[in-house]
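Appendix B. Chain record.
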Amino acid sequence: WGGSHFHVDTMGFMPTEWNLYNQSFCGLLALCFIVQYSTRADPDPEVEKLKTKPFLAFQRLYLVIYSLAFFADWLQGPYVYALYDFYGYDTRQIAVLFIVGFMSSMVFGTIAGALADKYGRRLMCIAFSIIYIISCITKFYNNFWILFVGRVTGGLATSLIFTVFEAWMVSEHTEQGFPPELIGDTFGLAYFGNGMVAIGAGVVAEGAAGEYGYMAPFGLAIVPLALCGLLVTYGWKENYGDAKLDIFSGLGNAWQVIRSDPRVMYLGIAQSAFEGSMYTFVFMWTPAIATAETKTTLPYGTIFAVFMVCCALGSSLFSYALRKGVNILSVPKYIHAAAAIANFLVVMFVEDKTIVFFSFCLFEVACGVFFPCYGTLRSQVIPEENRAAVMNLFRIPLNAFVVVVLIKVKFMPVEMVFSITTAAHTIAFFAYTAFAARSPK
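Structure tokens predicted for this chain:
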């Protein structure tokens, strides 16, 4: 779902023709804001009492920093593939570069999680900004091995953005003594904002690339990354996991947590299966939605914007459900069922591109609910001393899944790929069912 992996063809973001895609964008955006308004206009007075000035200041700063990090990520997403193609690399070389990114996230990201627990989550958030800036700089050089280094650093940065910011926030929220029921509120706002940021970043990147070339979005991304690093440096204090452990002991303890607590294990399986399928979708939605006649004319930028609105809608629905007192434990079963159905519909109706499009919209709504929901659940079950390391261990199977699919995808028809993702979402459903059965109601 992160921008660094999203390939969007570089066509106009909002074309002038009134068609299915921009109609869907306008309708879904309106629905998204209606749900947000309904959520914020009728808040739970008991929950609102808990939102003290210190909490709101803490939440606002986190949301600004989180949004800057993802704004930089989304700026780059649509143009990674396009830049490599512009530099003259063939499909095989580009595939190698993408695989390297996932391999880097899988290998180095795991160690980074243990480093964050030992040496500090704030420090690793600062390191994220520096590492991602290095990745951006490499994009200015048409040299395969420099771009290779850029993919290594980009993969590590991707692993960090999905783990250390959340680990810092949950730890600081707890340390400051803020009520645990407010964590879900922060997650909901963060992922709603992320959807909006993605749309804005797409428009900005489109303008920059059109005016200055495919390298421009990467240069532009350095600005929010630098701001992110500065705000973390001067606005956050440090927090740690178990600082007494060395790196490999930290990883060993994280693995022991997963082995010894079935809830953590099943939650990790469900998360990995869902996210592995999600990243596969990132690479497959373009060929799935296009035909031989439409692949050069489809408004990919608008379709991407629709998907991001759907994600924001999902996050808004999550916030609305929290305000209405829905038990969070009951939500993921619907997420995984919706995701499995959406992917299965693509398999069954792969030639009907309207059904495929709306199936993808349903899946993106599920993604929008998934991220804040699972963030809240992780905050409840993963031990504080191993939080970042455990979260990064969850990313090993999902990255391995994506690497295997990327290697094999050129040999498989679209419907076979989505049969695999349907199976993965079904596994996620049953894994989460096992987690819920072992959790206090």
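Further analysis of this model is presented in Appendix C.
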